Amino acid sequence: xxxxxxxxxxxxxxxxxxxxxxxxxxxxxxxxxxxxxxxxxxxxxxxxxxxxxxxxxxxxxxxxxxxxxxxxxxxxxxxxxxxxxxxxxxxxxx
Length: 94
Known about the structure:
Shape: elongated
Helix content: 40-55%
Number of domains: 1
Largest sheet: 4 strands, antiparallel
Oligomer: single chain
Low-confidence stretches: none
Number of helices: 3
Mean pLDDT: 85
Distance between the termini: 57 Å
Strand order of the largest sheet: 2-1-3-4
């Protein structure tokens, strides 16, 4: 039998993960939303790179992408997890 405190904390973490999601923002608009998981985060990083390249190909000079953690019950942003702007992307991809 597991300790009651460990069980409670584990259940709280599981419940918290059900209420949070990742959102991918591009140029100030929500582009996609997914369940908070490592797979979603990785997929969003790949998509973010493709979106940034499309933006550069289209001649954008400003703007960027951001991955945020969102509370799905209130739709409020909890934290910015990752972000990059066009200038940073150009420096990395020279």
